[in-house]
Amino acid sequence: MRRALVTLAITAVAVVALARFHTAPPRTLNPLSALHGRPTSGTPPTLQPGPRQPPTRPGVRTATSPPMATPFSLVQVQVTLTHGRLTGVVTVALTGEGPHTQALNARAEPILRREALQAHSARIDAVSGATYTSRVWIKSLREAIDLARRG
Which domains, from first to last, does the chain contain? Predict the structure, then answer.
């Protein structure tokens, strides 16, 4: 009986110690991050907000968001509004260095674009597995819609 109590006490102490043990992911600098400058030769291409194009038809407005960064990519979206309703979305830029990021972006972008066009707004859900890309893509979409509405 005494041996069982000692074993139970040791087990309880071990469980409490394990439950209180906190880990954190390693803090490393991602050299491929879109948030950090990279040395380049020559003049690097820069993303700029596109000029608001004059409407080709009455009630049609187009605008391009400023470039926005995720920890791994740069995102820029262009929208077309027809009488205030979202009718066109083009992803102008969606960079991603590394095969993993490129694969996530390639999977998420068509889903986000399709959902935005079906909803006729930026009220859409993020794509599972591509949270950073989704959040920033949706933010870029909202910004482009706001720019188009301001004319």
Answer: 60-150 (3.90.1010.20)
